[in-house]
Amino acid sequence: MASLAPRSSPARAAAAIALGVGLVAAALVLVVADSWIAAAGFVAAAIVVIGAVVAWRLLAPVAADGARAIDWNITRAVAGASADAVAVTDRGGRLICANDAYEAMFDGFPTPPGLPLDEEANAALAAAARVAWRDGIALVERVEGMDASLTATITRAGDEADMLVWRFAPTEERDLAMTARFLIGGPTGDRLGEAGIMAALMTPHGHVLAANAVLEHRALGHPGSINGRDFVDLLITDSRGLIRFEREGLEGTPLRLIQVPFLNGQDAPMLVVLLDDRDDTPAPGTSASAHVRSLVSLMPFGMALVDREGRFLQMNDAFLRAAGVEATDVPLYPGDLVVREDKTAVADAIRRFAAGATHSTDMAVRLKDHPDEPVALTIAGARGLGDAAVLLSLKNNSEETRLKREVAQATKMQAVGQLAGGVAHDFNNILTAILGHCDLMLMRHSPGDSDYDDIQQIRTNSNRAASLTRQLLAFSRQQTLRPQVLQLPDVVSEVSNLLKRLMGETVRLDVSHGRGLGAVRADPGQLEQVVVNLAVNARDAIVAANPQGGGTLSIHTRAVTPAEVREMEQDIMPAADYTALSVTDTGTGIPADILPKIFEPFFTTKETGKGTGLGLSTVYGIVKQSGGWIFADSKPGQGATFTMYLPVHTVDPATLRPAAPPKPAPKPSELWGQGTVLLVEDEDMVRAVAERALTRQGYTVWTAENGEVALELLRVSDRPDLLISDVVMPTMDGPTMVRHVRERYPDLPVLFMSGYAEEQLRRSIDLDNVAFLPKPFSVQQLAEAAREVLTRP
Ligand code: ADP
Fold first, then answer.
1. Which residues form a coiled coil (predicted)?
2. Please, which residues bridge with residue 530 across strands?
3. Is 756 inside any structural domain?
4. Smallest Cα–Cα separation from 768: which of 792, 784, 732?
5. If you measure from the C-alpha of residue 537 to the centroid of ligand 1, how many angstroms do you get, rounded to a whole number?
């Protein structure tokens, strides 16, 4: 962990000074405005600013002497999130930097996922890290350990998406409990005490976690720590059921005990409020209900008071936020907040509690505002609170739900991608056999022959099928890309003629480019396909909206700064420089219920024969494989916009040159070969075709149906000149077999054939000096590949 910076003492000093200034300022606010809320706000703001300063000071030196220069985006992302424990690791799993909160949470700088948690938690983190590398983001809820329950968010970041940012935050319940504890034990508690309210936060087993000073004094008789005491031991009940402090005895003032609905769950802490139950009614303004109202308004979680008739008396800000209502537009009844189906249940429960039901109840309700995500509403009865008869608490979990949904969507796309990749792989084997047999037959027929045209037809159709499997591989991000550094406007201009033709007479094409666009690194051919696929969909939507003709397709490029990404308020795309390309149409638009599905393969709303449902999934695969992001935006009837963001690639402009032209195909006579080839392939049909093709080219071919058979064959025979093998085979795979063979013949040339992408294979196959041939291949391509490997110097 050499690259971690030592704690910087000037930063500490700066923090201490800033904290001092913040507290003095808060004290002034308190004197001038006489408002604890404003003062607390001031302290909170000061802490946030100081947090940012400290994080900045601590992280900047790490960047300076780190093993690798950290880009500003990551540093900023980490500093911005400094309230949580944050760490950054690189591709090699090394810890590059971490903040103070991280050190405090984990007692030092362990490298995630090797944290001082239990095995299960670390395994969950490791799995999530793999998901984050793949999909950009992953979430682990409730990582248990270190006496706390944490939520971990792992985000891929960095200009080259080569870092992981790990963020650990206490789960929201714990966060709220901590805030409540702080409020009760701190000045807010004193203020409640002045108003005659005693408040305590307790464990589910009744042990005191925090209490305000008045309660402590009344219960113990002296200042001292009440924390950890069993609350029930501090109270006595008389024959009439009245509760008093044990210390004050039966002469003491009876108490009213109110359990405030706070957090859900068995392990959640309880909030208890005690009021003196005097017969003499308190003076107006200091009435119990007035006290409780001030308590409600101070609480950091959503709370509301309801009267005996079931009408709202008060809601605090957190409740307004969670319920999604404006302070100026508060409904009369709680039932008005929820969807029609839940109205009766809410009204019934409130009536029951207003009539005296004691235990609190939790119910999942759907708010009118966002009916798709149920929220937890806790209802409890309140005795002796003046007008207030029922207490409600509402938890705002929309942020959590949104994050969960995004992660679930990414995971689903990945699963579908794996399936598509698997199907494409098997299909490529079948196509290899079909194409191979066609090629072999064509060699025996000449044009003009009665069968020649039919065989050509089979071959053409098989090639079409092969291009479909390529699309599937593109979607599952297993396609071989040939990335180059390029400018997006060049890609658009390359296809603009084609686009004009595709749009026809009636659809206007409107292309515009922003200034200062950064170059991106991607496969130009694939990006052209992205633009064409998006444009074709747009045209279809325009025509569907207006069959008489008329409409506009706009293609626009622009530079996007990290600040703009942050403003977009989405958690998936890391803040960085991007070049964006958007395709906007004036078509039918996409209904909200369809929008989440459009990138899935085979999802189409077009009639049979018109849509394959592969257009957008291909687009998605290409964009993802190029390290980018794509989002669709639409309001039905107002057209749709697809925006692709590709990370800006920073390079020397001199390297921006077009790719070398492809080599001309060799003549058949140049493909003639000789020598012995060992062919290992588990699919009989592929093996048979390849064997015949190679034999025709003049090679002596030995075949084996798996790795073990091949090794056995080599044990009893001489050295072959070339080994051609499938990669994935049952029992022993190609690479393992080649490793054994190389022990005996270290320089034996090897050619792997596979239905998966070369890049993917090269990464997973740790062998030097091997060549790849993607399936499906023609007889000619196999001959070319064999010949090239054999004649290589
Ligand atoms: P296909 O075009 O073969 O149906 P795609 O994957 O390209 O497959 O698109 C999937 C679906 O997404 C389409 O059937 C259509 O419902 C919807 N869609 C895509 N682009 C647009 C657009 N620009 N406007 C409206 N709907 C669209």
1. none
2. none
3. yes
4. 792
5. 5
